[in-house]
Amino acid sequence: MMKTYHSLSKLSFLKKYSYKFLFIAFLGIHIPLLGLVFYALFATEISTSTFILITLGLTLGATALTLKILDSLLKPIILGKIALKNYVEQNIVPNLPHEYSDEVGEMLKNIQFTILRLDEINKEKEEVTELISHDLRTPIAQTLQIIGFLKENGERLQERQSNLDLLEEIASKQLKFLEDMLRILKTKQIEIGVKSFEALSAAALINEVIDNNKTALNQKGVKAINTLSESTMMYGHQIGLKQIFDILLSNAIKFSQESGEIYFKEKTSNQFLEITVEDSGVGFDESIEKVLFKKFVPGHLGTNGELSTGLGLYLAKRIVEKHNGLLEPFSDGKGKGASFKVSIPLEIQIDTSQ
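Given the sequence above, the corresponding structure tokens read:
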């Protein structure tokens, strides 16, 4: 489709796109002249009518050939137009050439970069929508469960108070979440990337996550034990990191037996900070491990019948990957507890490939 443009781009004196057009136009104009010169030099007799016919024929032929070549030079521009149209109408991400250095080559590179950037933004918007969806569905489901209990067992004062405390915690967490999301939206820092990363105290962040889940912990009599050093620092998106460990702690509580223990442990390895969330709950086998991080896979009920959206671990994994990290699950089988290891780079990693 771009053979003519590609061939002309190899000529060093045609660095600009306009030079390519002028070069073809120059040749087109001079083909009739050259033809007439050769005819005049080698023809024995030249009649007026023959001269006119040859001139007309060479002019028409040269014009047709020039127009055809100039039309083929428009192919890269048409290619860029088609790429934009396909992305807008069908969300197809193109793979435009990037090796050309003239004006049209720069245009193709800019179109490719712009489409890739728009595609990234669309994916970020989808992830934010999924994040909000997860953080609204779970508390609404919990709220409905509590309301059902209060309707049926409202006279059991101790349990009634415990559920009211949980309702208060749920409402407080959602208010904080919405405030954080509004702040992020206002500052346009939706995207989890290096520009929005900051140095954070890992221990303080985990303590805050534990504090946000204290009512759920107390209801089951489960202890969350943070063994991270106060001096341990981590780099990342504050809201994103909180979301990761909130999901992991919520899951650990959900699948822990009453009076169980959940540990947050740290280890530094190969330029990564590894934080493991470890419980002694129901665990999982190999068949469950294969689908742990899939989106909207129906979740299992917790040990006390807690509901699951089937989205939490999927979101946690995506956020970890946005930090150039890794989320790994471990379990020796059903009934033998589970642990999830979050590996985050000790230093900010900048992607230089773009």
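Residues 56 and 194 are 66 Å apart (CA to CA). Try to locate this feature in the token string yourself.
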